[in-house]
Amino acid sequence: MSDKYAADELNNLSREQMMNIIISLQDQVTQMNLNMEHLIEQIRLADQYRFGRHTERLDEIAGQMNLFNEVETYADNSDEPSGEEVIITARKKKKKGQRDDDFKDLPREAHDHRLTDEQLDEFFGKDCWRRIKPDEYIRVRCQPAAYTVEAHSVDVAVGTKGDHQDEFLRGDRPKDLMRNSVATPSLMAAIMNTKYVNSNPLYRIENEFDRNGVHISRQTMANWVIRCSKQYFEPFIERLRQELLKRDVNQADETPVQVINDNDPDDPNDRKGSPGHKNFMWVHRSGELDKEPPIVLYEYQRTRHHRYPLEYYSGYKGVLMTDGLQQYHLLEKELEGLTSANCWAHARRDYADAIKAAAKKNPETVKNSVAYQALARIGTIYKIEKPLRDLTPEERLKERQLTIGPLVDEYFTWIKKIRESGTVLPKGKASDGINYSINQEKYLRVFLTNGKVPIDNSASLYTGYFYPHLFQKPA
């Protein structure tokens, strides 16, 4: 901050001193304006994240869906139309049998509600009636879960003489899921489905069991889950990992998760597992464009140190599609045969944020902004890439090099000129997007050299964001 001067002190300053003060004040005002614009952008962006629609598509950023009208949005009032609506819809031919199609895979029971001849004679009179086509409709019935105790009796015999005297012979019995446990595969499947798919905590499952006369504590269920994980899932996951590393293209991402009670028992000072600590769920999956059955694996780690992906992809020779995290790029340096590729969805993210944070009072100004033009250029690349998904890798690569390659070259030439010109806010989101693309240019171009590499990492991004809760530790 500049020194403060009284009026008489300013009168005594030389012309050169006055000019220096004015120049200093101009610099301060310029910096304050830049900081203010940056703060305004951050505030608008925070509001957008909190209240706005999360999208990066250029044609959807302006449209905001009301957060509280989901029911009204999806309702079509087709079940109970008004009288006026009945007249209008009666002219349109309605698709028949839709309800039957909705429930065609469910078992069916026939329920006939017949009128007896005696009832008809009594109402209409003898021989004064005839049957016409019956009214037909369906209803869906739900039956609560049923639990059965399997009482097994295994026949046992003992030799009393001969070659097998005093030896025992037992009848064949089914193999237990876990030794000395009452759990069956169907019971464990029900527990895991309720816990990890329906996201119900174990205490709720315990209460539901109690209401049905099944007395299994949450501690017992937690022990069962851990035992099954070690005995059955871990070998299966490792086998899938081996198969995953045979694929030419893999994708990876990491998502922060909060985990409680995960302290290191051998380190009394370890507080990484305390509430609020940010641990990570890593997702590893086969390439989105891979024609083989997809493989999606999750790995929980307490940090996102690069040693974890380094160990996971040890010996892998292929392309790994990720975001711009430096931990991933270290793999290319330390693992011979691994090529790192970057995600164009991340390249457009900062531009989308810049548009969301911009003032919407002047649409023309927004459309003329660097962020809008950059997003439009990337959108053109995506538009050309979309129909190439159905081609073979060789055909896709040829089309990419012919049509998308020149657009990518033009994009990088353009953003480099923009950065050199200094026309964007240095600390703004548009500047972040430009810097990201330039710093990751080598990795963003990989999809132009291999037809099996997808344009972005969206396949693993969405599986990472939406499904990490499936793999939390038993509560």
List keywords for this structure.
disordered C terminus; single chain; five-stranded mixed β-sheet; 475 residues; 18 helices; alpha/beta
Could you please describe the fold and organization of this structure?
The protein has 475 residues and is an alpha/beta fold. 47% of the residues lie in helices and 9% in strands. It has 18 helices and seven strands. The strands form two sheets. A five-stranded mixed beta sheet has the order 5-4-3-6-7, sandwiched between helices. A two-stranded antiparallel sheet has the order 1-2. β6 (318-322), α11 (326-334) and β7 form a beta-alpha-beta unit. α14 (370-385) runs antiparallel to α15 (393-421) and α15 crosses α16. The longest helix has 37 residues, at 15-51. Residues 62-75, 78-91 and 465-475 have low confidence and may be disordered.
> Termini, distance in Å?
55 Å
Strand content: 5-15%
Number of helices: 18
Strand order of the largest sheet: 5-4-3-6-7
**Structural class estimated from helices and strands:** alpha/beta
How do the SSEs run, as a string of H and E? HHHHHHEEHHHEEEHEHEHHHHHHH
The helix content is 40-55%
Report the C-alpha radius of gyration, rounded. 34 Å
Please state the overall shape, judged from the principal axes of the Cα atoms: extended
Query: Which segments are poorly predicted (pLDDT under 50) over 5 or more consecutive residues?
Result: 62-75, 78-91, 465-475
Main sheet characteristics: 5 strands, mixed
Number of strands: 7
Query: What is the typical, i.e. mean, pLDDT?
Result: 82
